[in-house]
Description:
Blueprint: H1 2-15, H2 34-41, E1 47-49, E2 58-63, E3 65-66, E4 86-92, E5 99-105, E6 110-115, E7 118-120, E8 124-127, E9 136-142, E10 147-154, E11 158-165
Parallel strand pairs: 1-2
Antiparallel strand pairs: 2-11, 3-4, 4-10, 5-9, 5-11, 6-7, 6-10, 8-9
Amino acid sequence: MRGFIWIGLAAGLLAGAPARAEEPACGAFAWPLARELALLSAADLPAVKSGGAAPAGSAVAVTLQPMALVAFAIAPERTPKSPASYGAVVNINNPGKAGLYQITLSEEAWVDVVQGDARVHSAAFSSKPGCPGMRKSVRFNLASAPFVVQISGSPVERLNIAVTAAE
């Protein structure tokens, strides 16, 4: 009888375990990010090095460099927490129409956007630890012109980034 109780208890616990995309933190962002989580979690993301280009509406895997080696369009707005951190710049050459865009990262890092010769200040941000594959999303109001995404202060040498029009 005792064996049946343990089996029943174990089955009940397993049935209540959340799936990866259903982690509580993944649904706790300030706006819906299911599309971005799917993009960031894709197994076959194109690789981009710092200085490379990525299309809007997609995700890429970015290889970062030590901060001192990154050719930022303008200095990052925030000083990195660690001098041993990493950064990159990614060019978005054809964003499409003007509007609200979001830059979503798989890992912790600072995000700046430069359009023309000016920093674009963020319209909103949401950051939640504990969501596997997605850490932060920042929104920017952008013109239909090309822009540069600057990643700085990252503790990791590689992260995934999704650039999408906000829904």
